[in-house]
Amino acid sequence: MKKGLKYLLLLCVVVLFTGCSKDKAEPSSKNEDGKVEINVGFWNAQEALSGGENDKMLKTLEEKTGVHLIPQDMTSSDYHEKVQLWATNGQLPDIFVGDFVGLGQSSFFDWVDQGVIKALPEDLSKYPNLEEYMQMDRAKQAMQDGKNYIIPRQSYGDITYSVLDRNIVYRWDLAQKAGVTKEPENWDEFRDMLRKIIKADPENKNIGGITQTGSKILAGVMYPYGGILEKKWIINDEGKVMPSVFDGDMKAVMNLARDMYQEGTVSKDIAQVTGSNAKDGFLQGLNAAMVFNDGPSSLYTLGRDYEEVYGREFLDDVRFAPIFPGADGEKWYFVDTEAWSETYISSKVSDEKMEAILKLFDYLISDEGKRLMFCGIEGEDYEMIDGKPIVKEGVVLTEKYPFANMSNLAVHNPTYWDENYPTSIPKEYREENIKRHQDAVTNGVLPKISDASMLISTPLKDKFYYNPHEDFYTIMMGTEPVDKMVDSLMKSYKDKGLEKMLDEVNKEAKKRGIVD
Asked: Which interval of the chain is the signal sequence (predicted)?
């Protein structure tokens, strides 16, 4: 009887510990093909991943890295809200992208404090490409307690190239038909040209004013008129660090924007029409001008469509505006960082998924990975000649592979800024990019930028929220006098503790040697 009881007790102990061990074991994240499934939050991810097995670029990537990407969709107009909602509800995808560092947002610091996002391992030696990549300034500046919580998505070689993220293209052919004989060199001349095009309406299409390809583009184009770089912290003339929006001439910017909006040189539907709809409107002659990102070379497919519709060369009919002088006569211009956005990893990912994610990014950042993402399939889309990839003429990756619209998951296309990078984009379009960048380097002016200050975390700063894009549209479309609205806006920020927040940040900046 005692032996039986002892056996029964021993059996219970074995079952108990076996059960505990099963509870602790992580379920595998692999699908039936043996690939680790990774949910990814990316702009229009559903469409980019729609090709499945038929998308040779996606299929090659998944075979090379052993992952299977599953979309969690968002768009350029709703991603901030969606990611915040996912974070609150515990529904974040395994990896997601966005510009949540800086810009008056506490999201990044809150996520670190609350354990919402996961830090990269300190030892990345198994992933040599990623390890080297994480030495960039943006990654180091964003470290919290010595840990990396972001993987920067490199945009450009240096910040001067980010002038390519805010551009103006306009219909010069229509301007000439409307009696304009000189290409505009400042905002007054530009406005006058647009008014004449709208009044003459040379193609009888009821043409409107400026449209934009993204909800933040117009603000980024116009803020420099007041010496404001809305995505930057700066060191002002008094040696204090602060967001640029609180140092520049906001009234000058907003009076210009309001005047243009009311006179119609900025389209009334500017806040609703973005992306491909804006490009379609410009192509169809419904808008006299368009503000857009990614530089003039990004419009080469639009240019091809234009030539099919009108039977004329796109670059003969349009012009790209130079950097216009600001209210003070200086040619301030938009800049971002070497990586305008970043990738985050959910704290809920298993060790298996973390390893797969690191392997994925190590490949995407490698030379081989970038060739796949931005040159396509060797033999089909490009050939290796003298050790360099040469893209075949006429190849348009985004039309051939749906995943090419997500090829910048890790880094942006070097084609847009590196003139030596292989591409099928015609030479004349790339030359427009070079001209745009050279205008910034030769004629442009920048304040003393302090990204290190933007990435400081203090109690008051982490709670202080401001949104220069919301403010821009609120005042531009408002009905009260501009100066009154700007004064009211600034008072509201002071009432929320702007000055105390800046004092706190400046004390910390002094401790860190950012300012004297």
From this structure: 1-25
